[in-house]
Design a protein that fits this description.
The protein has helices at about 30-40, 80-90, 115-125, 170-185, 190-195, 220-230, and strands at about 5, 25, 30, 50-55, 70-75, 100-105, 130-135, 140-145, 150-155, 160-170, 205. The chain is α/β, with parallel strands linked by helices and about 230 residues long. It has a single domain (about 5-135, about 160-230), classed as Spore Coat Polysaccharide Biosynthesis Protein SpsA, Chain A (Alpha-Beta Complex). A seven-stranded mixed β-sheet has the order 5-4-1-6-10-7-11, with helices on both faces. The protein binds cytidine-5'-triphosphate and magnesium ion (MG). Cytidine-5'-triphosphate binds next to helix 2. The site of cytidine-5'-triphosphate has 23 residues, from helix 2.
Amino acid sequence: PRLWLIVPAAGIGQRMQAEQPKQYLRIGERFILDITLSRLMDSAPFSGCMVPLHPADHWWPDTEASGDSRIQTCTGGSERAGSVLSALHAMAEQVKDDDWVLVHDAARPCLDTRDLSNLIDRLYSHPVGGLLASPVADTLKKAVTAELPEVIETVDRTGLWRALTPQMFRYRILVDSLEAALARDLPVTDESSAVEFSGNMPVVVEGRPDNIKITVPADLALAGFILSQF
Ligand code: CTP
Ligand code: MG
C-alpha cells in the first residue's frame, strides 16, 4: 500500500488570539505550516499530500509548500473532522482502499521524525491503523462540576494515553468511519475516535510527549525551544 498525507490547516486559531490563524505564525523565519509540512514530506515516502484550508484563507500562496507539486489544497469544513473528510474525498480518485492515510495537525511542528518512521513501521501490516500517543504523566483528578469543584476521586492512570498525531489509518476504514460518525453527530475529536465508533480497534504507538499542539500564545516559545533541540 502507498502512503498519503493530510495536514488539516483550516482552523482559525481562536485560542491563540493572533491576527492570523496560528499555522501562519512564524517560528524563526518560517510559517509553522511550512515547518510541519517539510518535516513530514522530507521524512517519509508520501505519494501525495492534501491540505484543507479555510475558505477565506489568503496566506497559502505565501508558503513554501505552495510551490511543492506533491502538495495539493482543498476547502476545509467548520470542524476538524469535516476538514479531514473533505481532504479524503478530494483524494478519492488517486487512493486505493487499503492505502495508508496519515493525518497530522498543521499546528504540531515539533514531530520527531523518528516517531513518524516508527509509527509507519509498526502499523504498516496492520489491518486498521493507529496513532502516536504518550502515556499520561500527571495525577488525574475527577471532580464535581461546581464553582469550587471538589475531588470525587483520583483516576487510575494505568493504560491512559494522550492522543497525538500523526494518526494513520487505511483509507476506506477512515472515510467510512468519519462519514458514519459525522452523520450520527458523534463527538469526533480525532480520527481514532471515529474509527473506534465504527467498532475497529486502533493501535497506540508511543511517541514523544513534546509533540505539542500549538494552542495558546505560550506554546509558541515552547515550540521554538523544542525545535531548537532537534
Ligand atoms: N482544523 C481544521 N479545520 C477546522 C478546525 C481545525 O483543519 N475546522 C485544524 C487546525 O488548523 C489545526 C488542527 O486542525 O491544525 C487542530 O485544531 P486546533 O488546534 O483546534 O486549531 P484551531 O481550531 O485553529 O484553534 P482553536 O480551536 O483555538 O480555534
Ligand atoms: Mg479548534
